[in-house]
Amino acid sequence: MSTSTRTLGIAVAQMGPLHLADSREAAVRRLSDMLREAAARGARFVVFPELALTTFFPRYWYEDEAEVNARFFEAQMPGPATQPLFELARELGVGFYLGYAELTPEGRRFNSAILVDEHARIVAKYRKIHLPGHADHKPAAPFQHLEKKYFEVGNGGWGVTDMLGTRIGQCLCNDRRWPETYRVMSLQSARIVALGYNTPSHNIHWDEPVHLRMFHHLLSLQANAYQNGLWVAAAAKCGREDGHHMIGGSAIVAPTGEIVAQAQGEEDEVIFARCDLALGEQFLQHVFNFARHRRPEHYRLITERTGAGLPLPPDALSTEAPGA
């Protein structure tokens, strides 16, 4: 379909379970093994999952905030445990995306991701905007989903970064379900969106059929890749972490909306695609030519309202987010 070809080797490094007892050093060794495999297959950019250095700790209620900070958050990046990953990336000449829990010098906490270039320099940071779950303790639930307790809403928007000869944007987990996420990045001429996720297979907020968790995950990636002329590279942390199951389904999706690579299991696994970066431009020159066809003067409600204008009946109201 494309008239010219500019390719980039992209790998997604899915992680199997990380348990409460697993150390950061053990996590970094696993990430490093997959980085080596990805480079050997021709990748110049590798996408790691959300919160890739620890278990998905928002499933647990902690009273001691100092313990949470010390156990799960990164006060510096790279730090002593993560420095080997950066050194390996520099040696291999490969860039990467990494999700982690960020503790700022002021004590603020974010669910964050970074872009690291082929020289091991951090060139961009993203802080998750669409935080799912709740902040209160739900002792009757099978597990907690406390992103609203442990993280602030991201304060930097969705930026797009020049890197590896293209433009790369970032998002995290629940962000992938919201069309505004991708459109904002596509309007900045993104060609690739990198995202990591940790998605429970069971939704504690409502009786959602389990099979829809994977269906809606892939639907979100495919529809938004197509409607925005983007390559989307999505990395899961998945499997049973201390008995709590999360979906896999790591994938690389083309601007056609087609899945060109997908993980087959729920363990550490590298998937790879040689991506034609010009492919998305064909869609953006024709069916989704934004400058020619968009009519933002008619889209005001998108920014003026957070919810529907008409009230819903009381039994239809819910204050819970739909899950990560």
From TrEMBL:
Q: Which residues form the CN hydrolase domain?
A: 8-277
Q: Which GO terms describe its molecular function?
A: hydrolase activity, acting on carbon-nitrogen (but not peptide) bonds, in linear amides
- From what superkingdom does this record's organism come? Bacteria
Tell me the InterPro entries matching this sequence.
Answer: Aliph_Amidase/BUP, C-N_Hydrolase, C-N_Hydrolase_sf
Enumerate the UniProt keywords alphabetically. Hydrolase
What SUPFAM superfamilies does the database record attribute to this sequence?
Answer: Carbon-nitrogen hydrolase (SSF56317)
PROSITE patterns recorded for this chain?
CN_HYDROLASE
User: What protein does this entry describe?
Assistant: N-carbamoyl-D-amino acid hydrolase
Which species is listed as the source? Paracidovorax wautersii
